[in-house]
Amino acid sequence: MKIGILTSGGDCPGLNAVIRGAVLKGVISHDTEFVGFRWGWKGVVEGDFTSITRHDVRGLSKQGGTILGSSRTNPFEGEHGGPENIQRMLDENGIEAIIAIGGEGTLAAAQRLTDAGLRIIGVPKTIDNDLAATDYSFGFETAVEIATEAIDRLRTTAESHNRCMVLEVMGRHVGWIALHSGMAGGAHAILIPEQPMGIEEICHYVDSVRERGRAPLIVVAEGFKLDTMEEAHSHLGLDAFNRPRLGGIAEKLAPMIEERTGIESRHTVLGHIQRGGAPSAYDRVLATRLGMHAVDAAYDGAWGSMVTLRGTDIETVSIAEAVGSLNRVPQHRYDEAKILFG
Ligand SMILES: Nc1ncnc2c1ncn2[C@@H]1O[C@H](COP(=O)(O)OP(=O)(O)O)[C@@H](O)[C@H]1O
Ligand SMILES: O=P(O)(O)OC[C@H]1O[C@](O)(COP(=O)(O)O)[C@@H](O)[C@@H]1O
Ligand SMILES: [Mg+2]
User: Fold this and answer.
1) What is the CA(116)–ligand 2 centre distance, in A?
2) Any idea where the Phosphofructokinase domain is (predicted)?
3) Can you say which residues are annotated as belonging to the binding site?
């Protein structure tokens, strides 16, 4: 079989490990031939691909980013987009299946293309951990490690100056990175998109920390809304998919806290540092296994399915199930963390 691989959406540590896992499994067990589409769905629409051999994936599991490049191209748009054009391009080049590595957007596109008859297997990718139907996705654990290290570092400088620190982490719709890094780093409040909060409550936690003689540290996900806000804070325009580019909520909160509590406050936006660099060992293993199982799913003809982590096993679910809803932080997980606030 000749399989085309693509990586699409925001990049994520572990994408290359998936590619390596898929290629090694395919070459060793099935004599598969691989090509890689450049820049996500863009390469599919434009017929822009290159062969990937076993030699090409040597040492790739520890390499951040994606050797194939990524984009937020919609495969249904443009002169050469849409299922008929794509199928024609695949037939002309003898490509029998696609492994699409992406988040909920990429997989929604994969789902629509599968419905139109294309042979696609999905692999879940997200540092946000917002995909349903998988316990975790690779990239998330690495991002949490990076955010936790940032918290540890911010705490020492905060204590030296008796300041309040507000750290902004990624998380467009869900607050998993904030929740896990905040718990790991002992944050005094964790603010997430699922749980709008008033500035008074935030300042109450800050005050109580200061009363104990400590320097308050708050972790906020970029998608967090104060209870007075209708939409998440955005002043950076739109992304390629016409969604507001988030970021800046920490910069907004720090002066509000300073004004109300009198504590000198600073903000830090961790940004794309969370997405760059080498994946953790856990993420390398998870990504490698997902890649290997995606190839098996292709040989099983399980078109329209996504490989997924269930407990410690890799299984398959329908992509439809994966994109049907978001994996939000449940109330009981937030309540559990909230005991430690202040
Ligand atoms: N329902 C959809 N139909 C077709 N294409 C979609 C759909 N949803 C998202 N996409 C495409 O997939 C791209 C990747 O989605 P995005 O949410 O940016 O990344 P991720 O795959 O990481 O979630 C989007 O920019 C868009 O072009
Ligand atoms: O700066 P970019 O590439 O537009 O991406 C920012 C977004 O990408 C993410 O890191 C991941 O989002 P996706 O999985 O949808 O690509 C979000 O947390 C963040 O809002
Ligand atoms: Mg997305």
Assistant:
1) 27
2) 2-297
3) 10, 72-73, 103-106, 126-128, 163, 170-172, 222, 266, 272-275
pLDDT computed for residue 243 by the predictor: 86
The reply to whether ipTM tops 0.90 is yes
- pLDDT tens for 322-337 read 998 999 999 999 999 9
Burial class of residue 97, CB neighbours in 10 A (0-12, 13-18, 19+): buried
Evaluate whether 38 touches 50 at the Cβ level (below 8 Å): yes
CATH of the domain spanning 2-138+279-324, picked from 3.10.560.10, 3.30.470.20, 3.40.50.300, 3.40.50.450? 3.40.50.450
Q: Which of 128, 174, 272 to mutate to test the pocket of ligand 2 (most atoms within 8 A of CB)?
A: 128
Instruction: Please give the number of the atom of ligand 1 that sits closest to the Cα of 72.
Output: 25
> Euclidean distance between the first and final Cα of the chain, in Å?
57
pTM: 0.95
Instruction: Provide the pLDDT confidence category of residue 138 given band limits of 50, 70 and 90.
Output: very high
